Amino acid sequence: MPFICYSRTCTQSSCNQRQYHFISESKSWSEAQTYCKQNYIDLATIDNMTEMNKLIKTVRGIYFGSAWIGLYDDLNNWRWSLGNTELGGGFNSWYVRQPTNWNGQSLCVSMTFDRGWWIELDCYIHLSFVCYDGRQNASESYVYVDEYKTWTEALSYCREHHTNLVSIRNEIESLRIHSLIPINSYVWIGLYRTRSWSDQSNSTFSNWRTGEPNNAGGNEHCTAVSFGDAEDWTDENCNYQLPFICYSVSSLASSRQYHFISANKSWSEAQTYCRQNYIDLATIDNMTEMNSVMNKVNGSNNGSAWIGQYDDVNSWRWSLDDDDFYQEEEREFRNWFHEPNNYLGNELCVVLDYNGNWADISCDSSQSFLCYDEQMY
Fold first, then answer.
1. Is the pLDDT of residue 6 over 60?
2. Pairwise CA distance, residues 120 & 95, whole Å
3. Would you say residue 3 lies in a domain?
4. Is 118:94 a contact under the CB 8 Å cutoff?
5. Is there a single domain that holds both residue 182 and residue 316?
6. Percentage of the chain lying above the pLDDT 90 cut
7. Are residues 200 and 189 in the same domain?
8. What backbone torsions phi and psi does residue 155 show, to the nearest 5 degrees?
9. pLDDT higher for 306 or 8?
10. pTM for the structure as a whole
11. By the 8 A CB rule, do 261 and 277 touch?
12. What element of type H or E holds 39?
């Protein structure tokens, strides 16, 4: 038979938006999850800083303690950095009694010289590592790198110079990689663990307080937002009785609004201001929005103003990192004029001049700036 598929399109003008609901009644994490599933959809899932700010605004001024969200420590959620494929029930070579999530920080995996066992370690330990190189002109598929780096640094190195940290799918691959490890050494491989959301979302967004998660006492496997000054995340004992935040979904339309701020700030200071008072620094992803911005600042700005574009070293990207916000190719919209040139290697942030042209300058420069907000209806 012929058949019919469907896809879901979400644009900046119409989208299914998460709505957050603060429940002041104190419950354990599992009790809170049950309540949310019965009355809404689930405990709050947060995909990006835009949603984080929306959640904060829901609670701000009402409550100043900690409240459960849907993130929890799933001890079985191991993934490979190459393609984020789940470990599932496939090949593994864990050392006896591993993994244990020791101290709540053992989220990355090394291979030992002794029989190629897998050992979970703190990701900030410095080890040598093995890269996988899948390029057609690569002389070797597996490359041992005799440099000591954290797991994240090793991942960045492998992605820059080869393809990725190694994934190990069977005994043959394990033996080949094991043969590269020097005696008495451990090496990073591409296996790592992330926390999971109770609604099974694949969101990788996080907003942890410095030093968290720390699994204090070995029993902190659930996540709470602290609505104090920092409004960041901590890991807590799942049996604690706390208020919580549920979410539901409603179909809403929105219109973008831009706000010109004449105060001079660095790019990061401007980003912080916009996220606290609106949604983020301005994103401009098509010529229609470019004209809207210029109409907003017409006569107000005779110099340059920060927008949300910055260089994360690997590519130009937007401060507002929300896949649902952008239509096809909108992330790639640029309005450079003889730029960028990264003069002296220190121009990683973008300003808009009074003619609407973009230029890269030092992020520490003091500039006025443009914030983005949206009106829902």
1. no
2. 9
3. no
4. yes
5. no
6. 33
7. no
8. -60, -45
9. 306
10. 0.53
11. no
12. helix 29-39
- Tell me the C-alpha distance between 225 and 67, whole Å: 5
DSSP symbols for 304-365: EEEEEEEE-SSSEEESS--GGG--TTGGG---BSS----GGG---EEEEETTS-EEEE-TTS
Full 3-state SS string of 231-272? CCEEEECCCCCEEEEEEEEEEEEEEEEEEEEEEEECHHHHHH
pLDDT of residue 375: 66
Read off the amino acid at residue 97.
Answer: R
Is 176 inside any structural domain? yes
Q: What is the pLDDT of residues 92-110, one digit of tens each?
A: 888 877 777 665 667 899 9
| Per-residue pLDDT at 27 | 94
Counts for the chain of helices (H) and strands (E), in that order? 6, 20
Angle at 251 between CA 44 and CA 285, to 5 degrees: 90
User: Of the candidates 220, 256, 200, 194, which has an alpha carbon nearest to the alpha carbon of residue 13?
Assistant: 256
Determine the structural domain holding residue 222 and report its residue range. 15-73+196-250
Question: Which pLDDT does position 179 carry in this prediction?
Answer: 93
Q: What pLDDT was estimated at residue 301?
A: 61
**Spatial separation of the C-alpha atoms in residues 327 and 9, rounded to whole Å:** 9
